[in-house]
Amino acid sequence: MSRTSRGGRSREQRQQQIVDYVLERGSASAAELAELVGVSLMTVHRDLDELARRGLLRKFHGGVSAQPSTVFEGSSEYRMGANRELKDAIARTALRLVEPGASILLDDSTTALTLAGMLGGVGPLTVATNYLPAIQELKSLPEVHLICLGGNYSATHDSFLGLPCIEAVGALSVDMAFVSTSAMNATMTFHQEHELVQVKRAMLAAAASNVLLMDSSKMPRKALHRMAPLRDYDKLVVDDGADPELLAAAGDVIDIDVAPTGTP
Fold this sequence. Notes:
This protein has helices at 11-25, 30-37, 41-53, 76-80, 84-95, 110-116, 132-138, 162-170, 194-206, 244-250; strands at residues 27-29, 57-60, 63-66, 103-106, 125-129, 144-148, 152-154, 159-161, 174-179, 183-184, 188-191, 207-214, 225-229, 235-239, 255-259. With 264 residues, it is of the alpha/beta class. The protein has a 7-stranded parallel sheet. It has a 3-stranded antiparallel sheet with strand order 1-3-2. It has a 3-stranded antiparallel sheet with strand order 10-11-13, covered by helices on one side. Strand 10 and strand 11 (188-191) form a beta hairpin. The longest helix has 15 residues, at 11-25. The protein is globular and about 60 Å long. This is Lactose phosphotransferase system repressor. Residues 11-66 form the HTH deoR-type domain. Keywords: DNA-binding, Repressor, Transcription, Transcription regulation.
């Protein structure tokens, strides 16, 4: 369970509010941010230290400014609650790509987790994942042969990462990989954390076909690390809130499925 502030919000929600505020204004003082989120100056300084370590904000004496590549990546628990309707729509559309008998990889994104929760009615499948919530979701499905990809456990992401995970992924050859990432524009995908980039790249290399799952809040944006050119994916599944001009440009290099939001 995430730690909460006096107002009952989780640390991730508080830090998201700080990042959004600084991004909108360009910079802010620590005192200003403490008043904004309703916690002590000491607590805000701890938040700012963590956000600066993660490359999200640039700290200076008395305050912070925005990094040009800022993309907030919260904990697994935080991400599960974000853009729920969009992820549901994207997962329903991506589900149509999964055929009985297929072998698939799911990354540690919450959009892929949403897809995992819909796989029970597809038929016999082999599913490999490094994401502990997806493992919990899939372990009781009788028609799913589940491969758990181990490695160095990350409590923040609730997934297994590092060289052991990369090697485990590299030993596989699957039909399809479903991955998501922090940000994209019309030509490139990005992620804020290098350790996750390495695992996701290994998944792309292990699959015959790669499906990119992206909600419209992540585009057009950039993050700290380039992950893969858009042309390295075979299909983009995105919700219907995505910018039409970006989709038109992206359509030159990738096939796109637009997921309708609302009641299916």
